[in-house]
Amino acid sequence: MSSRADRLTARLDGVDVLLVAELVNVRYLTGYTGSNGIALVGPQTRVFITDFRYVQQGGEEVLPEFDRLVADAPQELPDLIEGALPAGELRLGFEAEHTSVRAHERLRELLSDRVALAPTIGLVERMRAVKEPDEIARIRAATALADAAFESVVGQGLAGRTEREIALAIETDMRARGADRAGFDAIVAAGPHGALPHAQPRDEEVKAGDVVVIDWGAQLDGYCSDCTRTVAVGDPGGEAGEIYELVLEAQLAGVRAVAAGRGTREIDGIAREVIEAGGHGEEFGHGLGHGVGLDIHEAPTLSRRAPNQELEAGNVVTIEPGIYLPGRFGVRIEDLVVVADGGSETLTSIDKQLTVVD
Q: Is residue 222 a contact partner of residue 33, using CB atoms and an 8 Å limit?
């Protein structure tokens, strides 16, 4: 099986060597998990550059196909680029989405006229979007760990605990189970606060009758999970129950639609139609889902506002419709789903029926 660097080289259209500076992409290609490093990848080029602080770590983690160079100071990694490039005139691709104006200017100052800089968009990210079996196994393990933490914390009841306490308890439980860290800052939003899709936990106690949106995930062995459940503290009332059932119907429709070859906009539309038919289309403002992997948000994006893409077997995506009623409450239900030929596999194990707790 060819290496990731080999497969990237096959995608280099119009550039001779790609400079990879985005650390998640560096990790994906080389195995390096440190905080300062770049890689150069081309047909005859496999070079990893870091500084003296990461010599041992680089030696332990970086794949043997990469030559390793060490800069004298953390900020001097770009100084070694030209010397690591093949001889003669060439086009050096750089990650335009991750390169600041100042970084580009510095590259131009350091490189001779034989090297032309060429912007590239998403070369490594498109590779990362299709997960290898080992990557899916890691995401599955992160999901199982996060699911267990949620069920443990929520099973102890929510009333009288603050949003911040609940969020911290979930993170602590995940870490105790072996997570590297939380995959992202957890959302715990009760009552009217739940109408904010990206609410931040407050020092406000959860009360009986609240509908609570909880969005959390773990990072395990570098890979993330992502899930949302909406929980009722006691009887939430008839309207909240009706809204929950509508979101659940949309979420199930979205999951059923996931399969290799289906369009991302099409799948978003299938779930969105359910909510629109229920009279709440205006309260579902975000996209249906996104890819998950080494980053919590990565390609592909399932949204009516994003470019349409055909899903591929190996994509791992969220399906997360929601309805948000300002000043009242919100409901979101989210699963993590692996795309397969002819269907999908849902990684999330937590029941999606409305959970009622004390």
A: yes
Q: Cα dist. 46→54, 81, 224 in Å?
A: 18, 12, 28
The torsion region of residue 81 among left (phi > 0), alpha (psi -120 to 50) and beta comes to alpha
Helix segments in the chain, DSSP class H: 4-9, 23-30, 55-61, 81-84, 101-110, 123-128, 133-154, 163-176, 238-257, 264-277
Alpha carbons 162 and 191: distance in angstroms, whole number:
12
From CA 227, how far away is CA 218, in angstroms rounded? 10
**Number of alpha helices (DSSP H) and beta strands (DSSP E) in the chain:** 10, 20
Query: pTM higher than 0.85, yes or no?
Result: yes
pLDDT band per the 50, 70, 90 thresholds, residue 5: very high
Do 258 and 319 meet the contact criterion of CB atoms below 8 Å apart? yes
Among 159, 212, 233, smallest CA distance to 333 is for 212
d(CA 171, CA 333): 20
The per-residue pLDDT for range 49-97, each reduced to its tens digit, is 999 999 999 999 999 999 999 999 999 999 999 999 999 999 999 999 9
165 vs 183: CA distance, rounded Å? 18
pLDDT, tens only, 120-157: 999 999 999 999 999 999 999 999 999 999 999 999 99
Residue 63 φ then ψ, to 5° = -60, 145
160: DSSP letter: T
Taken in order of first residue, the domains within the chain and their CATH numbers are 4-128 (3.40.350.10), 133-357 (3.90.230.10)
- Residue type for position 29: L
Contact between residue 3 and residue 39 where contact means Cβ atoms under 8 Å apart: no
Average pLDDT over residues 273-300: 98
